[in-house]
Write a sequence for this structure.
């Protein structure tokens, strides 16, 4: 019996046309929900439950068309995405150069929801045609880290052979879960700190009130003593008057 997913993550696959985005998704998840969406809306998607270290997670992967004609439509598909998979073709240096543009687009439209970016060099099975070296990829990744302030992971894949495809999605899922857990811990600490601060404020307020009550009690006691003294003085005066009257 499969467990119902307790977490769901929206992922976007972006990059230039013909870099193998759709092939990567299909290699991992199978065919899309609707194959014609990519041509009509500029986006296609598929959803799949995965098990990550005993926890069931739902991944929805949105494959965004790279053609410029779909630029205006793409913006709405970034909303709520947690991770961007930026794909380039290791035989096409221009596709790597354009990755910064794609990552910037994701950061702009996803705003605060995006937590991780993966820079993925695809088609590594075409070793004889390869024009991009690992150090070139690392340089671009470092540019991402500095300009976008996002954690950036590097992967080289082959959608044809399946090399590193499963590892990519498993690593991504783990990182998303860890990020959520850290966020929950921070919220718990913040909640604890707030409760502690509230208790301190309540204690300080109670102490102030106690001091105020103490001062009032002290004033009442002093007033009572003065009244008692005055009462005694009046009795003495009354007694003196009576004595004088009796003498007369």
């Amino acid at each position: 019996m499969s467990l119902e997913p307790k977490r769901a993550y929206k992922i976007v696959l972006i990059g230039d046309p013909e870099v193998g985005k759709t092939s990567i998704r299909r290699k991992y998840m199978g065919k899309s929900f609707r194959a014609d969406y990519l041509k009509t809306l500029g986006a296609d998607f598929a959803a799949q439950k995965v098990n990550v270290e005993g926890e069931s997670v739902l991944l929805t992967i949105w494959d965004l068309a790279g053609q410029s004609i779909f630029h205006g439509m793409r913006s709405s598909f970034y909303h709520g995405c947690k991770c961007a998979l930026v794909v380039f073709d290791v035989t096409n240096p221009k596709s790597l150069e354009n990755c910064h543009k794609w990552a910037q687009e994701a950061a702009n439209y996803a705003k605060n929801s995006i937590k991780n970016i993966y820079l993925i060099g695809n088609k590594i099975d075409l070793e004889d045609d390869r024009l991009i070296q690992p150090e070139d990829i690392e340089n671009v990744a470092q540019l991402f880290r500095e300009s976008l302030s996002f954690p950036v992971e590097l992967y080289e894949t082959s959608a044809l052979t399946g090399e590193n495809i499963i590892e990519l999605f498993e690593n991504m899922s783990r990182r998303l879960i860890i990020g959520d857990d850290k966020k929950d811990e921070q919220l718990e600490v913040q909640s604890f700190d707030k409760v502690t601060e509230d208790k301190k404020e309540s204690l300080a307020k109670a102490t102030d009130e106690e001091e105020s009550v103490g001062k009032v009690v002290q004033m009442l006691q002093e007033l009572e003593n003065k009244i008692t003294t005055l009462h005694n003085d009046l009795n003495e005066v009354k007694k003196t008057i009576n004595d004088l009257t009796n003498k007369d």
User: Anything to note?
Assistant: The radius of gyration is 37 Å. The first strand starts at residue 7 and ends at 15. The beta strands are 7-15, 43-52, 55-64, 83-89, 116-122, 152-156. The chain has one domain: 7-187.
